[in-house]
Design goal:
The protein has 401 residues and is mainly β. It is 9% helix and 36% strand. It is elongated, with a radius of gyration of 25 Å.
């Protein structure tokens, strides 16, 4: 039977090189024939009489399709090539016109999962990407940024041969299709040891809010810092933090001293920088930071910059992403990005040139402390900068434990 599906917004991260052979997987002691994602096939027969009109239809698979019972294939999601309609495949015979090959580079990671003791992963499993396979080096260079990232399986993630898997995964509200990846099951709060005595100790943890956001962390001077900006849209107790989508909404929240957040320029495409929060969100009793974490105050910020010394800004700045003048080296692992800010009046400024983070230290007036790194020759020494700004300003947030 073919079940027509609603159109799902997916984008393919990576492809592999073209070959012509199907692959066979050994799982639980039995052989299973597999047709890979991105294969072009023609339906030559159907088991159900009511599906016979599909014979001759050409389809493109975007999840693996398996033959568990003779030559009848099932279990794949596909799109009709001439019409774009999506479908679920059950009990077909398929003629493969073209399909990607299994990647031969890189080799299997020592921690990679294999299907020898079980077949695939169910939906809702946290996995970490160990490698992304392709012979196309230009595309592989782009895809390599996903290596080490943690995702949740959106639907069954299934093997396509050796240590390679394919399927649909998600992070928060974003959905991804990976045709060929190596993975391992991910345990929360894993920490990786340094590869060199001079390198920072890094790790990751998962915040259960927003569907399970994963953050990178770094240990600096015996404290664990997030090495990326907070991107939460709810407080720790689950209450929603209002998004201010216009300058008027932002000013109203500031005037009424209510929590709010926004993306830079109110554009979700800037979410790589995290969200900008006003200080009322930072100071809310419901808790902005994840469980076990908190927003650093003046004591923590000054300890950080004091420990890093006169070149603190250079050591805290990410190597790339800063558009002018003084470059960073990110020696500390803080990975500071220039996410800019939003003024009390809802005006945005500073993206790619300034990174500014809130301090949680209280002030009785209308201002609060912030700590900034500028990409400008104005700060000749390259040191980090602290000052007070209106509590209605929108700034980035880092957390510490």
């Amino acid at each position: 039977m073919i079940i027509m599906k609603y159109c799902m917004s997916l984008f393919c991260i990576l492809g592999c090189t073209i070959a012509t052979a199907q692959t066979t997987i050994v799982s639980g002691g039995r052989s299973v024939s597999c047709i890979l994602p991105q294969s072009i096939c023609e339906i030559t027969d159907t088991k159900e009489a009511g599906d016979k009109h599909y014979i001759g239809t050409k389809i493109e698979l975007f999840t693996p399709c398996y033959a568990f019972d003779g030559s009848w294939y099932s279990g794949g999601m596909a799109a009709v090539t001439n019409g774009g309609a999506e479908m679920e495949i059950n009990y077909f015979k398929l003629k493969v016109i073209s399909q990607p090959s299994l990647p031969v580079y890189p080799s299997c990671n020592v921690d990679a999962e294999t299907p020898d003791k079980g077949f695939g992963f169910a939906a809702g499993v946290n996995i970490q990407i160990l490698a992304v396979g392709s012979m196309d080096k230009a595309r592989y260079a782009e895809a390599a940024k996903y290596v080490g990232e943690v995702y949740e399986t959106y639907s069954a993630l299934t093997p396509i041969g050796g240590c390679w898997y394919a399927g649909i995964i998600k992070k928060g509200t974003k959905i991804f299709l990976f045709p060929c990846i190596q993975i391992k099951k991910y345990e929360q709060n894993e920490t990786s040891p340094p590869t060199d005595s001079n390198e920072p100790i890094t790790g990751k943890f998962t915040d259960p809010r927003n569907g399970g956001s994963t953050y990178h962390t770094v240990k600096i001077n015996d404290r664990i810092w997030m090495s990326e900006n907070l991107d939460a849209s709810t407080f720790r107790n689950g209450d929603i933090i209002p998004e201010a989508k216009t300058a008027e909404a932002w000013k109203k929240a500031a005037k009424e001293k209510r929590p709010a957040w926004c993306y830079y320029n109110n554009d979700k495409r800037n979410d790589d920088y995290g969200k900008l929060y006003n200080w009322y969100a930072v100071n809310d009793s419901r808790g902005l930071a994840p469980e076990g974490w908190y927003v650093p105050g003046e004591t923590e910020w000054l300890a950080l910059t004091g420990y890093l010394g006169k070149d603190a800004a250079k050591k805290m700045k990410e190597v790339e992403g800063w558009t002018v003048n003084v470059p960073g080296c990110n020696e500390s692992g803080f990975s500071g990005l220039p996410g800019g800010w939003c003024t009390y009046f809802g005006v945005f400024s500073g993206i790619k040139g300034t990174g500014i983070w809130w301090s949680s230290t209280r002030d009785p007036g209308n201002t609060a402390w912030q700590h900034a790194i500028y990409s400008s020759n104005v700060i000749v020494s390259g040191t980090a900068y602290a000052a007070q700004v209106d509590k209605g300003t929108g700034l980035s947030v880092r957390c510490i434990k």
